[in-house]
Design brief:
Helix content is 23%, strand content 32%. By secondary structure, it is an alpha+beta fold. The strands form two sheets. Strands 1-6-2-9-10-7 form a six-stranded antiparallel barrel. A two-stranded antiparallel ribbon has the order 4-5. Strand 4 and strand 5 form a beta hairpin. Helix 3 (44-60) packs across helix 4 (132-146). The chain is globular, with a radius of gyration of 18 Å. The termini are far apart. 30% of the residues are buried.
Amino acid sequence: MVFDFKKEYKEFYMPKNNPGIVTVPRMNYIVVRGTGDPNQEDGEYKHAIGLLYGIAFTIKMSKKGDYRIDGYFDFVVPPLEGFWWQVERHPVDAMQRTDRAGRREGVDGIDYAHKEDFHWISMIRLPDFVTEDDFRWAVDEATKKKKQDYSKVELLTVEEGLCVQCMHIGSYDDEPITVAMMHEFMEKQGYELDITDNRFHHEIYLSDARKVAPEKLKTVIRHPIKTKGN
């Protein structure tokens, strides 16, 4: 049977549509970093998605070639994910950074009028059997076969730790409603937000926005937290 991360790890990929606390372990990802409006046609973000899927499927389909990955098992390519934030023009500390539901000077929540200000790390999870050597092979193999530059793709290990998360159903622009509910919940549980230079607003996309109506989109929203006073 093909391994499906969404089914095997439902606590991370299929939360309920009310907030919950979760501890997220170390996971390996392929990532592409960038900036700008994700909705821009032929923009940097959409190009990044193509790069990620090119590497992910090269690893998945390695079973059909001569290259053998130690410990390989067949898997469903996990959903696209992303870390998101906006940065003030001259930031001096993390308080001047806002996530997709944080605060910016003069703006309550994300400044959706300026999506060009987004910074993002687009990512797809990898099975733990993929090593640095396997990743480098996949980049070389995809470059050779697809005749495309994959040098922007990185291998990144992330351990998010303690977080509050929730399933958001609806448009991405309506996320602040869900986030407000998450923050109210975490505060009642004795936690506070812990977004820093190394801990981000996190989204996991369970729907294909090209095929699903905005009001039916399913997105996991996850925020890093810590015990109040720590």
